[in-house]
Each structure stands twice: as C-alpha cells, then as structure tokens.
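Quick one: structure for this chain?
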Amino acid sequence: MGLKCEKARERVQRTWKASIEHDLRGLVFSLAHSLTGRLSQEEMISAITQKQAGTYWQDTAFAAGYPSLALLCYYIALCTQEEQARENAYTYLQKAVKATQDQPLQEAGLAKGTSGLANVLSFFEQEDEQFRQASANLTQQLARQAQHTTWVKTVCGHEVLDYDAVRGASGVLRTLLIQQDPNADVTSAIIQLLQILVAFASDPNAWLIHSSFFPVSASRYPDQFVVNCGLAHGLPGPLVALSLASLAGYSIDRQNTSIQHLASWLADRFIQAPWGIDWPDVIPAHAALEQVRQLPPARSGWCYGAPGVVRSLWLAGQALGNDRFRELAVQGIRATLQRPHTTRRIDPLTLCHGEAGLLMVALRFLKDTEDPFIEELIPGFVHRILARFQPDAPFGFRYDFHVGSLIDSLGFFTGAVGTLLALLAASSSVEPKWDRALLLS
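Got it. Here's what it folds into:
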C-alpha cells in the first residue's frame, strides 16, 4: 500500500539565481537571441532533421525530436521574455503532439517514449488550456503503459530488469512523480514501479548484467557480469527514483531500507584518485572492496562517473536525512571539479557525457549547498562551452559522434538543445526544472 502525504521533515528551499557575472550572461542571452530567429525557420530545421531521422532525430522523441526542441524554446522564452521564442515553443510542441498520430508512442521510456513528451507537456499545461487536456491524456496513457509494461528483458540469455533512467522504469517513475494531484491510475502506476524498484534493490544478484551490454565494459571485462554505476543506465537511477518518490511523500514497505542499501553500496565503493574520491563506471560481479579500490575512475560525466553517483547520494541523503551520504556527495563533487580537464574524458558540449552535464550537476550542488568553491568554477564551464560556438552552424554548435563528420544535432542528451539549456541554467534566475529528465532534481 502506498501513501502520499506531506513530509514532516523540513528541507531548506533556496531560490535559483544566476551563477555568472552580467557580461558573461549577456553573451549567453545574445546567443539565445540569435538562435531564436534560426529556430523559427521550420523549413530549415525540417530539411536538416529529416536527413537525420532514425539515427539522430525522431519527431516524437524527447532524446532528439520536436518535444526537446519545444522545451528549449520554452526555456529561452522564460529566460529572455522573447515572444518569438514562445511562439516557437508552441509551434514545435504542436508538431510533436501531431506527430504522435502517425508515430504512436508505443513505449513508456523517457528517451523515445511517452514519458519524454509527457515531461515536456507538463510545462505547458499551466499556461494554455489547449495543452492541459493533452497533458492529462498523455499522463494517463503513460500510467497505463507503465502498469502493462513487462520491465524484464533478456540480455545475453539472462533476464534483467529494465530499470534505467533513460529508457527504463526509473525515468518513467520520475515523470509520473511530476503530478501534483494524481488520479487513481497514476498513483497505482507509481506504487507498482516503487514495488518493482524496491524488489530490485533488495536483490544484489539482480544488479548483475553481462558486460557486453555496456560499451564501457565490453572490452575490459569480456564475458563477465558487472554492476553498472552510471546514473544513465546503472544503480544511481533506481536510487534517485526511490529517493525522489520519498521526498514527494510516497512510501511503501522497505522503500527507505532500499534507499539505504543502494546508497550504502555506492558510498562504500569509491576509489581514491589524485584529485580525491571518484567512482568506476562498472564493477565486476562480487568484487571485494580492495579490488574495487584498484579500478580506474570513470569519465566525469552525467551518464557515467562521479557526477551522477554523487548526485544520487545527495538525494538519498535528503530522503533519509543522512548526513554521511550528503557529506560524501559534496566531497565527491568537489573532487570531480578539481580533476584536471585533460583527464576528465568528457566531450566539450553535451549533457550526457560532456561539459554541459557536469555543469548541471555543479549548478544543482551550488543551489543546495551555496559552496563558494563550486560557485567560483561555474564561469569556467560557460567560457569553455561558448568557445565551441560556431557562427556558421545552424544551431550554434556541432557534435562529434564518430561518424566521420560533425553533426548538426538538436538532441537533448547529445545536442544543441541540452547545451543551450545548460548555458541558460547558469545565466538566469529561472530554475531549470527540466533537469528532472536527467534525474538531478
């Protein structure tokens, strides 16, 4: 049985504020203004994206499609008050909704399924009646899909839970938690997903997945089973989902025990790097702690690496009122930010595994802790990203996906949408609530 109630424990609520100086903010807003005009050119965007369809674009997909484009335009409008940006947002959201008629959302997941579009629609439903009913209908569809999805799949001959943040149960649960007054179907779906994730958390053998399923581990641990430590596809995803559900007032049997178990496991498996504590990307099955300590650190990305791990520990600490997890999280983000740029192994731009994603994690910690050490480093991120701006690129930035040429991507995780949203987050007093799609808040 699940309950939704007000949490008795008080939590400090700090307002979002710009993290960089006026002149640097001016550069970001100037960039946003110039791109607003380009993003109003529907024919140009269609000509580029339709050539990428299937690989780097899908009309209905949040990962790279009209939903993510609508979200970007919406946040540009909030931050700059530009009417053209608002018109762009409505145009692309309408395109996204219309596209579902020919491309029905068959899966629940965040990246390419119902969860992604539902996430975006939730921002618009408070502003316009035309989207309110569409949002309610889509959330209802998501709840039913979540309840009827077989979350277990076969990987290399073994059944595993599709639990991850990007396409699995954790990301779907985060989207359902957006609802302030959920109906019976949404509440039932939330409780069912909580039960699934609690059962998963309670069984360490269920965490094991064949290394061939993860590109980061396939060559290093051939024909072995590993535990994934990345926020995108690993244990931090369920940990965040369970923690955020607790913070939203949902509680089922063994939920807090599961949060404690997952957080403790991750907290115990740090490694000591020259810059401080860090985490590996994956850990071989049943590795002893002394073996874990010898593993190499992951890149410093959102998807794999300490940034995602420490954010999950922070949110677990908030859910449980656990100072150890919160202190370790702050220690971990400070260490990551001290890691030399040449060793971080992240790309210059993206949310998924680049500077923009690390910037977003740093910004969230800055809001939560007001740590001056973190604040001092934020402008550096903005400068490094802006240095990659290409005036001749249709969307301002180009992306290297190892296909032999740079791609003009409008992706959220790996494209201009995510890059620009992160720049706006550092430059504006508008809270980037969109980062719930990254399970950062």
